[in-house]
Amino acid sequence: MQLALVIDPGKCTSCKQCEMACAYENEQTFNPAKSRIRIFDFHEEGRFVPYTCTQCDEAWCQSACPVNAITTDQASGVKLVHDNLCVGCKVCTIACPFGTINYNADTGKVIKCDLCGGDPACAKACPTDAITYADVEQSGFDKMKAWAAKTDSAAQSS
Amino acid sequence: MAWTKTILRINLTTGEITKEPLNMEWAQEYLGQRGLATKYFTEETDPNVDPLSPENKLIFATGPLTGTCASTGGRYSVITKGPLTGAIACSNSGGYFGPELKFSGYDMVILEGKSPKPVYLSIFNDNVQLRDADHLWGKTVWEADGMIKAEVQDPLAHVATIGVSGEKGVLYSCIVNNMHRAAGRSGVGAVMGSKNLKAIVARGSNGVQVRDPQGFFAATDAGKKVLAENAVTGEGLPAFGTQVLMNVINESGAMPTRNCRDTVFEGAHDISAEAMAEPRRSDGKANLSTNQGCFGCTIACGRVSTIDPTHFTLQGEDKERYKHASGGLEYEAAWALGSATGVNDLDALTYAQFLCNEHGLDPISLGSTIAAAMDLYEEGVINHNTTGGIELKFGNAEALVKVCELVGMAEGFGAELGMGSKRLCEKYGRPELSMTCKGQEFPAYDPRGIQGMGLTYATSNRGGCHLRSYTVSSEILGIPEKTDPLATEGKAGLVKAFQDATAAVDSAGICVFTTFAWTLEDIAPQVDTACDGGWTPEKLMEVGERIWNMERRYNMSAGILGDQDTLPERVMKEASKAGPAKGLVSGLDKMLPEYYELRGWSTDGTPTGETLSRLGL
C-alpha cells in the first residue's frame, strides 16, 4: 500500500499548525517561512487551502534536474532532493507546474516535501483532519461517497 | 529561549531605528506581551501625558509563546495610554501579524514621537524601514492592506493598519490586521494616527526556539487534547463562535438591550449563531461561510460570513467590496450593533461589522455609543437636525448602518459619535445615559443579570471590558465551577483570581479563550518548557497580580482613582424589568470593599505599601 497526503480544504481553518510542524521537522525551529506545506487564504471566498508537493509519478522536477539530485524512493514514491548533489540552479522550480519545489536562500539548495520519511508531521499536527496520510489508491473514496449520496434522489424521496 | 531577546525602537520624529536587547530581568517578572510591554511603557512614559501627543508611546508586543506551536500562540498586543479613557490601554489581537514580528526577530516594537509626514513601517528581518505613506493616507483598512502588500511585493507579508477613523482621531478606532482581526479597544488606532503612522507590514524568516523542544511538544500536545475534548473549545466555539452566547445570555436575563433600558432582547434569536447557520431564501446560503482559526489556534472560533445579496445594504453603487466573504459577527459585535441598539436584522449587523473591519472601528464602543445616541434621540434631547436627517430610533436598521458609515469616515454626525458615548452624553447634558466605565463602553453582559461582571467592569484597568476577568465562565457556563450569576457573594475573590490569571495568559502570547478549558496547570508546563525561569502556576499567578497592580498604579498616577471604580447609575439604580434578574440592580457596593481587601488595597482602592513591596513594585 502506498500512502499519500490527502488534503481536504473544506476542513482547513488556516491555523498554520501544519506549517509550524513542517518547519520544525526540517529546520528544528518554529519558522513557517521554511515550511514545505503552505496554507493559502482566499479571503473573499472564505476558503483556506493547504498545498504541497503531490509526489508526481513522472516528476517534472526530477526530469529537469541537470545533476540528477532528485531521486525516487521506490517504496514510498517520494521524490527526494539530495543536498550534497543539488547545485541550486533552480531549474526544477521552473519545471514544476505546481510551484511546490522552492529555493532556500539560506542553504543554496531547493526544498520540497519528503513526507518526513513516511510519517508526515503536517498530518499529525492538523487539528481538523484537513490533512491526512492515507492509502493513495483510496484518496478519492470519501469524495466519491459524498457525490454518490447525491445521486438517485428520486429513489430516496419515494 | 522563546523570547527573541531583541526590541526594535523607532523614533518617528527623527526616523531613527535602533535595536536593543530585551531586559531579561523584567521578562522574568512580567513574562511578555501585556505585562512586559506595560512595564516598559510605565517606566518610559509620564502618566500625565496627553494620549494623542508625540510624548505618548505605542508598543506592539508579542509573548514568549507567540509564533510557536502552542495552541493559539499567535497573539500580539498594543500597549499605550488610551485616548478614550486616559488609562493604560492594552488591546490584544490574533490573526497572523504578531508571529511575523517575532519571526522577524523582535519581541516588541516601541514607537516614539510623531512622524513629520505619513509613514508606514516595514519589517523584513533585519531590513527595517520607514516608508512614505502619503498615498495611503485617507485609504481604508482594506485598501491600505492590499496596496502595501503590492508595494512590498510580498503576498505573504502581514499588515496591521488603521483606517481613516484612526487618522481622524475617532477615540475608539482600532488597528486591524489581516483585514478583520483587530487590536480593538480603547482607541489604540487613534494613537497610531496621531503619530502619522499608517501601518506596519512584517514578514520574517527567523525561527522561534524553545528551551526544551521535546518537553514543549509533549506539553502543547497535551494542551491541544484538552481543548479538543472540552465542550466549549472543542465543539461550541468552532461550530458557533462566540455567538454561541447570544441565546444563552439572553435567557439569563443579562442582555444589555436598548442602551440598558432592558435586559432581555426579544430579537436575540434573529441575530444568534443559530440564525447565522440558517440557509436564507434568496440564494440558499447561510450567513456563515466557514470558521477560521488565528495563527496556531486549534479552536477556530472566527466567523467568515457573507451578506444576503438581496439585502438593502448591498443595493446601489459602490457596494462590490461587501459582496464577498469577510470577518463576520462575533458575539460582542452582534450584541453592540444589535441588542444594544434594538436592531434584529442579521444582514444589517453583518454589514455594520464589515464596516468596522473596513474602517477600523471597535464594534463594542461604536454600538454602545450609537445606543446612547438613540436614547438621546428617543428622549428628544437630540433630533433630525443634530443627526443630519437620520431617524436615530431604537431598532432602525437603516439608521444604524448610515451612522456606522459616517463614523468610519468621521464625517457629519459620525464625527460626534466618534468621541464615544461618555463625551457625547456629556455634551448633550445627559451623562447618565452613557453605559461606560472609566470612559469606555462596557460590553455584552448586563451587571444586573451577571453580578460578577459589574465588579469586572468597575475595576477593569482599561475601562469597561469583559476580557480582564471573564466571570461569565463561572457564573453562566460553570467553568471552573458554577456560581450563581444573581449573587454577589464570593464574586470579589472570583474577579481577583480571573484578573490575575488573565494577565498572565495575555502575557504568554496565547488567547484567553483557551481558559474555557485550560487552567494555569495546563498553561504553566507550556510556558516552562519554552522559557527559562522555572514557570509554575504559582509564578504565573504572581506575575499576573504584579501586572494588575502595576497597571492600577499607572492609572492612579494618571489621576484615575478609586472613586472611578463604579458603574453607570442605570445599572446601579434601575432594576431589571424582566427575565431571571427581574427586580435586581448591580450589587457593586457589596462586592467592592471585599475586593479591595483581597487585593491588599486601602478602603479607597489604593495599593498599600505592603502589597506593592510584596509584589516587588
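qc> Chain B has a mean pLDDT of 98.
qc> done
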